[in-house]
Amino acid sequence: MSCFKIIFIITNFFLIITLHIAKAKEPKQVTVATVDDHIITAEDVLNATNRLPKKIREKPLSEIYPNIVNELINQHLITKQAYKDKLDQKKQIIEILKKNKDQIMAKYWLNNFVKNNTSKEKIQNFYTKYLENFKTFKEFNASHILVKEKIEALQLIKKLKMKSEFSKLAKSYSIGPSKENGGNLGWFRSGQMVKKFEDAVMQLKKGTITKEPVKTKFGYHIIMLNDVRNSKPKEMEEIKQRIIERIKQNALSNLEKKLRKNKNIIISDFNKVVQEINN
Q1: b vs e for 146-166, b when ≥16 Cβ sit within 10 Å of the residue's Cβ?
Q2: What's the number of CA atoms in the CB half-sphere (13 Å) around residue 59?
Q3: What is the DSSP letter of 31?
Q4: What is the C-alpha to C-alpha distance for residues 91 and 85, in angstroms, rounded to an integer?
Q5: Residue 136: strand, helix, or coil
Q6: CATH T-level assignment (fold) for domain 138-230
Q7: pTM here?
Q8: Extents of the domains making up the chain
Q9: CA of residue 248 relative to chain centroid, distance
């Protein structure tokens, strides 16, 4: 059952019925207004709501419902008048309607194509291959204190040698965004940090701190290696959305190649187009 239908049932917008005869209906089966023999359904309201700006959509449905329904009524009456004035027979309108029809056809076909290519079965197959091809690697958990000057970094190293708490110094002195976490950078693998930083981490043993400040383009780092572990495959739910996006990208890329194969496609130069328009 859609979120839209649930909201409408809860707020009693559709029907006031006793529990023993209540039957759930699809939004397209529920009439919210009529204009002569024209019916406006809950599905029409849903579609209109989805087209509204985000700021308006966030308002309570009970607040925007009357305006949406009245706008749909006005739209129908104006459309009827346009047909009465034979606007649909004008060449300019016919061309616009054809372009809109083409866009709608392409949109719905593409949506169906993406849906078919991101089925549960295909997502599971992708994840299974990910597990089969997964190769473990080292992951590092480190904290750092980042400062601008080397002399300040050396002073902080002295404080750490005197048993000062690393996280407290990071919160007080670090200029890096991780200062709020006591300097903790979380887990990372080789290639995710700048090389000088990564090289320094690789030389540390668990629980130790760099003896000298490590200079990078960001400043001077004092680094502490918190832990090292072998990586494990991610759980399905953790990477499901990324899998879907990857499948989409691959499917759309292959589709583009397939559709364009053996087609004579010519794209005009931008400057030429601008010149023709301005002339």
Answers
A1: bbeeeebbeebbeebeeeeeb
A2: 12
A3: E
A4: 14
A5: coil
A6: Chitinase A; domain 3 (3.10.50)
A7: 0.56
A8: 3-85, 138-230
A9: 13
Full 3-state SS string of 41-98: EHHHHHHHHHCCCHHHHCCCHHHHHHHHHHHHHHHHHHHHHHHHCCHHHCHHHHHHHH
Name the average pLDDT for the chain: 90
Report the C-alpha gap between 65 and 46 in whole angstroms: 10
Contacts of 175 (CB under 8 A, 6+ apart): 146, 147, 148, 219
What is the dihedral sign for C-alpha 55, 57, 63, 64?
positive
Residue 259 has pLDDT above 50, yes or no: yes
| 3 state DSSP class of 228 | strand
Identify whether the C-beta of residue 32 lies closer than 8 Å to the C-beta of residue 45. yes
CA 86 and chain centroid, separation: 44
Split at pLDDT 50, 70, 90, the class of 206 is very high
Strands in 214-216's sheet, in edge-to-edge order, are 184-189, 138-147, 219-230, 214-216
Among candidate residues 79, 77, 73, the one with its CA nearest the CA of residue 34: 73
144's enclosing H/E stretch is strand 138-147
Query: Is the pLDDT assigned to residue 18 strictly greater than 60?
Result: no
- In tens, the pLDDT along 98-156 reads 999 999 999 999 999 999 999 999 999 999 999 999 999 999 999 999 999 999 999 99
CA distances from 176 to 143, 150, 255 (A): 11, 15, 44
Cα–Cα dist 221/140, whole Å: 16
